[in-house]
Structures are given as structure tokens and as C-alpha cells.
What does this fold into?
Amino acid sequence: MGGSRKGIPNKTSRYDSDILPRLSDIKEWLMQGDTVREICKKLAISPDSWYRYCKEHETLSELVTMGRSVLCNEVEKSLLKLCTGYEYEELKTIVEEDKNGKKRTKIEKIKRHQPPSAQAISFFLRNRMPEEWSDKKELILDTSQNEEARKRLFLQMVNGELDADTEENDADCQEVQQKQVDEDMQ
It folds into this structure.
């Protein structure tokens, strides 16, 4: 039987009947930031079915990737605007009464400037350039002296010489590490 599914000839799949005709809606929902759960509810399918369709149908998978990419680009543009500041127009509605008691509505356009946001700048720099702007600094205490002490300890451990000298070797390693910390602090 050609084109049959589970023994039922020519039955269209739920993907063909429920998803394929709504690809433009799905794209729009993704670009608006809808979650998988929200999209599944709109399509009346389970999240498991959604993920299976994404895996089985390249068209849907590419649409999801593209829709999310567009949304991420928009968010990045907005973040960049917050980091650099921007100009915008504000509309102000003024209702005036003339001498005769007649009300007149007047709309004014006012140019405003939104200054850069320190919080947005901090977020941007910490995420785009973490080596230079991260709040967490990594202090590496691994010196050649420390490396040599570790190698000796390892060789002694492998050769079975470590049992009697364990405390002495641990003290040596700790002493070398403490010296390095003291030097780095000065």
C-alpha cells in the first residue's frame, strides 16, 4: 500500500493538517517571544508532539531557529540602544478652551533624549567581554614551584613511597602554596 500510515491508506498526519497550514502563524508567535508551551496550546498539541515535529520536519526546525534568531536580534538592538542612549518623540495632547467655551485639542511633538543606562552597559560588557569586565576574577596560584612539588608528590605516590611521608609532603605543598599567596599579595 503506497502512502499508507499504520495500515490506513492516505490518511493525512496531524503535522500536515494542523502544523503545516499554520507555519506563518508559528513564525509570528516565535518572533513575538511565545514559549513552546504557549505555541502548543494555540495549536492544541502536546509539547512532546511539538518536539517530535521539530525533529522530524526540517522546515519546522528551520522556522523555529529563524524565528528565535529574529527575536534575539531585536532584543540585542534594544539592549544596544539602552547602552548608547537614544532620541525619541513624545506626543503631548493639550485641550484648551477658547473665549467662547469651545474646546480645542492640540497635539505637540516633543523631542526627548534617553541617556545611556549604566545597568545595561554593565550587563552588556560583563556578557560580551567577560575576561575584562566580569565581577569574578580568577586567581591562578599555579607556579612552577607548585608544579614541581605536585610532580614529586605524584611520583612518590606511584612508587609507593608516600605512606610514611604523606604528612611531610602535604606540609611541603602547603608551604609552597602559602609562599606563593604571600608573594602575590605583596
User: Anything to note?
Assistant: DSSP finds nine helices and four strands in the chain. The first helix runs from residue 14 to 19. The CA atoms of residues 7 and 111 lie 68 Å apart.
